[in-house]
Design brief:
Layout lengths: L6 E6 L6 E6 L8 E3 L1 H5 L8 H23 L6 E13 L2 E14 L5 H14 L1 H6 L4 E8 L6
Parallel strand pairs: 5-6
Antiparallel strand pairs: 1-2, 2-3, 4-5
């Protein structure tokens, strides 16, 4: 059985001077976040964009995927921090998302740099958002272990 999640969006006006909102309908965790064409292609000016929301979805998904792969490999991470940078550029057919660059930094006891990089690559392949993007968007991973902080 498929899992369904819903979001809603509204738009007023033309593309260049209009504006809209986006809401997380299923959870209700955010409502009427403002968005505009300028927030997609210029300075966000306190507004979100589909590309930022895609980056957030990818970061959330990948953090779960890498934690799962670490556990399957016998490692218990103290912490993983994931940043995703989604890039878009104007192409012949119009603005196009072209890349999703994942940076993951982890504190994982007894894990080597090589193991962490290998596990991060597995997580990229196992992350549902990475898989959704893989046919049309370059997805990359940069994985780094950091030393535990002394209390």
């Amino acid at each position: 059985m498929a899992t369904l999640r819903h979001a809603t969006a509204s738009w007023s006006g033309d593309l260049l001077s209009g504006s809209g909102t986006v809401s997380a309908y299923t959870s209700g965790l955010f409502t009427d976040l403002p968005t505009s064409w300028g927030s997609r292609t210029e300075d966000p000016n306190g507004q979100t964009s589909p590309e930022e929301l895609l980056a957030a979805a990818h970061a959330s998904c990948f953090s779960m995927a890498v934690s799962n792969e670490l556990a399957k490999a016998g490692f218990a991470p103290d912490h993983v921090h994931v940043t995703v940078e989604v890039s878009a550029e104007k192409r012949e057919q119009g603005w196009t998302v072209i890349g999703s660059a994942i940076t993951v930094i982890g504190q994982v006891p007894d894990c080597s740099d090589e193991d962490f990089e290998r596990i991060a690559a597995l997580a990229k392949d196992g992350c549902p958002i990475s898989r959704a993007l893989s046919d049309s968007v370059e997805v990359t991973v940069d994985a780094t272990l950091e030393e535990p902080h002394e209390g």
